[in-house]
Amino acid sequence: MIHVLAADPTLADFGKDPLWITIIKAVMLFAFLMLGILFGVWFERKLISRMQNRYGPNRAGKFGLLQSVADGIKMGLKEDLFPRTVDKMLYLLAPVIMVVPAFLAFSIVPFAPMVNLFGVQTPLQLVDLPVAVLFMLAMGAVSVYGVVLAGWSSRSPYALLGGLRSAAQVVSYEIAMGLSFVAIFLFAGTLSTSEIVKAQEQTWFAVLLIPSFVVYVICMFGEAARIPFDLPEGEGELVGGFQTEYSSSLKFALIMMGEYLHTFTATGIAVTLFLGGWRAPFPISYFWEAANTGWWPVLWFLVKFILTFSFIIWVRASLPRVRYDQLMSLGWKVLIPVNLAWIMLVAAVRNVVVNDDNKMLGIGLGVIVVIAALAIWMRFDTVNQRRKEARKAQVEAEFEELSEEPTAGGFPVPPLDLPHYHGVQRKEIPSGTN
């Protein structure tokens, strides 16, 4: 039996820290994110290079560890240019709006339970709220304003189109991401991140709620605009997307930092809501009672965080970029209907478990709801319908070509009664002629 419940923080444990402890935790979180960006960029470049049989960064510092520092110094010292037609205030404000919400969203992520920090017992989490997960979703929604304003303030049609398309992508996948959390709320009975981690003491939600976890992983790539969903910076006709008019200066560095911070936030939320948070994996927590006490949970959280981030890098090195229509169709016509059907099934099963009556009725109702939702989705899946129609039209066109030219699949061939030309020598061309 594991006796770690005494170390689990609750909502009542927050808001009691001295001001200087809160400042120290905020500085520690800021340092973790800034150092994480520096080493995260290096780690991503290094891991992808090894996957592609290359060395990656290996000049600046030992093993290239200072390459990200050199890139940051270079962008910070570059001349800060302003196009003549931009709205300067919004042009400067847009990168800040992209960065600040990412820092705030990470403040609800718990790194460990109650720890002794300079003689004060405090949860190793900056802040927790009764609606902490909704706060994280709100911060993701606010960052969309930075994307739109970056495109609009540039007064460029390419940047404006890129900003609108990027905002449509983020908003579309935020809906499916929010729905993937509903099943967690039903099982945990709370929206507090510290209490959601406590609810995963026996089983991680990634195992108990596999469909929600799979949907969140897909939405994580769409929300953070990572490959295969990096349409904001990969569209050829947009010349770089919403950041087209931002030169390689500090503003451009802030935009790149904001995108990386959103990736870190999505990774931290995945660890917190689905992978047990700071709790040790099953074999360790079963044989070692003190694994979930003190500062050891920080190690388990970092291991899960690094492994999840490595998975994101692995996907980037493995999958190609999708088309924009495929991106939107996946978000609106697949993820959202599947999420709604799964939520109905989870609600029915949860009601049966809590009330302990009419079990077969509840399970049967959930199965009927899922089958009906999948049938409706297949009926209105216009993407597959268009593909079937295009495939049918292609087959009919090929059949018509074969009927007109029955020889060699429609390609003209010489008649079979031509004379045999083997052995005929090539006629020489006199020199000096063209």
UniProtKB/TrEMBL annotation:
<keyword id="KW-0812">Transmembrane</keyword>
<feature type="transmembrane region" description="Helical">
    <location>
        <begin position="20"/>
        <end position="43"/>
    </location>
</feature>
<feature type="transmembrane region" description="Helical">
    <location>
        <begin position="90"/>
        <end position="112"/>
    </location>
</feature>
<feature type="transmembrane region" description="Helical">
    <location>
        <begin position="203"/>
        <end position="222"/>
    </location>
</feature>
<feature type="region of interest" description="Disordered">
    <location>
        <begin position="400"/>
        <end position="434"/>
    </location>
</feature>
<dbReference type="GO" id="GO:0009060">
    <property type="term" value="P:aerobic respiration"/>
</dbReference>
<feature type="transmembrane region" description="Helical">
    <location>
        <begin position="298"/>
        <end position="315"/>
    </location>
</feature>
<comment type="function">
    <text>NDH-1 shuttles electrons from NADH, via FMN and iron-sulfur (Fe-S) centers, to quinones in the respiratory chain. The immediate electron acceptor for the enzyme in this species is believed to be ubiquinone. Couples the redox reaction to proton translocation (for every two electrons transferred, four hydrogen ions are translocated across the cytoplasmic membrane), and thus conserves the redox energy in a proton gradient. This subunit may bind ubiquinone.</text>
</comment>
<keyword id="KW-0472">Membrane</keyword>
<feature type="compositionally biased region" description="Basic and acidic residues">
    <location>
        <begin position="425"/>
        <end position="434"/>
    </location>
</feature>
<dbReference type="GO" id="GO:0048038">
    <property type="term" value="F:quinone binding"/>
</dbReference>
<comment type="similarity">
    <text>Belongs to the complex I subunit 1 family.</text>
</comment>
<dbReference type="InterPro" id="IPR018086">
    <property type="entry name" value="NADH_UbQ_OxRdtase_su1_CS"/>
</dbReference>
<dbReference type="GO" id="GO:0003954">
    <property type="term" value="F:NADH dehydrogenase activity"/>
</dbReference>
<comment type="subunit">
    <text>NDH-1 is composed of 14 different subunits. Subunits NuoA, H, J, K, L, M, N constitute the membrane sector of the complex.</text>
</comment>
<keyword id="KW-0520">NAD</keyword>
<keyword id="KW-1133">Transmembrane helix</keyword>
<dbReference type="Pfam" id="PF00146">
    <property type="entry name" value="NADHdh"/>
</dbReference>
<feature type="transmembrane region" description="Helical">
    <location>
        <begin position="327"/>
        <end position="348"/>
    </location>
</feature>
<keyword id="KW-1278">Translocase</keyword>
<feature type="transmembrane region" description="Helical">
    <location>
        <begin position="173"/>
        <end position="191"/>
    </location>
</feature>
<keyword id="KW-0874">Quinone</keyword>
<protein>
    <recommendedName>
        <fullName>NADH-quinone oxidoreductase subunit H</fullName>
        <ecNumber>7.1.1.-</ecNumber>
    </recommendedName>
</protein>
<keyword id="KW-0830">Ubiquinone</keyword>
<dbReference type="GO" id="GO:0005886">
    <property type="term" value="C:plasma membrane"/>
</dbReference>
<dbReference type="GO" id="GO:0016655">
    <property type="term" value="F:oxidoreductase activity, acting on NAD(P)H, quinone or similar compound as acceptor"/>
</dbReference>
<dbReference type="InterPro" id="IPR001694">
    <property type="entry name" value="NADH_UbQ_OxRdtase_su1/FPO"/>
</dbReference>
<feature type="transmembrane region" description="Helical">
    <location>
        <begin position="260"/>
        <end position="278"/>
    </location>
</feature>
<feature type="transmembrane region" description="Helical">
    <location>
        <begin position="360"/>
        <end position="378"/>
    </location>
</feature>
<feature type="transmembrane region" description="Helical">
    <location>
        <begin position="132"/>
        <end position="152"/>
    </location>
</feature>
<keyword id="KW-1003">Cell membrane</keyword>
